[in-house]
Every structure is written in C-alpha cells, then in structure tokens.
Amino acid sequence: MFGDLMGMMGKLKETQEKVEATKKRLDTVLIDEQSTDGLLKVTITANRSIKSLKIDDALLEDKEQLEDYLILTLNKAIEKATEINETEIAAVAKDGMPNIPGMDLFK
Questions:
Q1: 48 in a domain, yes or no?
Q2: For this UniProt entry, which residues form the secretion signal (predicted)?
Q3: Could you tell me which residues come within 8 angstroms of residue 30 by beta carbon, excluding any fewer than 6 positions away?
C-alpha cells in the first residue's frame, strides 16, 4: 500500500515538474493577431504576455477608434493564447496523473 502511495507521489511530483516546464515553453510560443484591415498587429505569448504592438499611423488620428481596435484585437489574441495554454497544460497533467480508481478528472 505504501509503495503504491510513494509511487503515486513520485508520479505527481514528476507531473508538476512537466507542467512547470510546459509553462516555461509556452513563453516561447507566439500568437500573432491583427485587426481585419491589418491596421493593428499584436504578438503575445501563449502565457498571455504581450510581446509587440504595431499600430498603423492612420489609427493615431482617432483615439476612440484606436482604443476599439486594441480591445478587439487584444481580446482575440488572448482568447487564442488561453486556448493553447489550457490545452497544453491539460495534456501534460492528464498524461502524468496516476491511475486512481474513481478519479477520472480529465475525461
């Protein structure tokens, strides 16, 4: 019984390390998003950290329009990054979970 418990604890520790490594790797996964007309371009990591913004000069003339562009484009990029992040972390966590009867958390 204790051998199984120790084995499970080891497996959980290994999974935690893999999750942390995946989080670090996701800092290098870049998501590019742009407005439909290409006047605003955003690059963020899969951990939702903004890496770059490129704003066309035409948007600098209308503050309200620029704000709208930023909100829409950043939200699209964040949505994509969140999806990638959650999928990657869930895959690592599911793969590393010990087989405990009745604990089918990731099905």
A1: yes
A2: none
A3: 43, 44, 45, 46, 51
| Rounded-to-5 percentages of helix, strand, coil across the chain | 60, 15, 25
Position 61 in a domain: yes
Write the CB contacts of 15 (distance below 8 Å, at least 6 apart in sequence): 92, 93, 95, 96, 97
Question: What CATH number is associated with residue 43?
Answer: 3.30.1310.10
Contacts 24+ apart (CB under 8 A), 63-72: 66/40, 69/35, 69/39, 69/40, 70/40, 72/35
Decide: 41 and 32 in contact? Cβ < 8 Å: yes
> Could you give the CA distance from residue 11 to residue 96 in angstroms, rounded to a whole number?
7
**pTM for this structure?**
0.75
Q: For the segment 24-53, what is each residue's pLDDT rounded down to a tens digit?
A: 999 999 999 999 999 999 999 999 999 999
Query: The tokens of 95 are what?
Result: 């793969």
**Of 46, 48, 52, 50, residue with least CA distance to 22:** 46
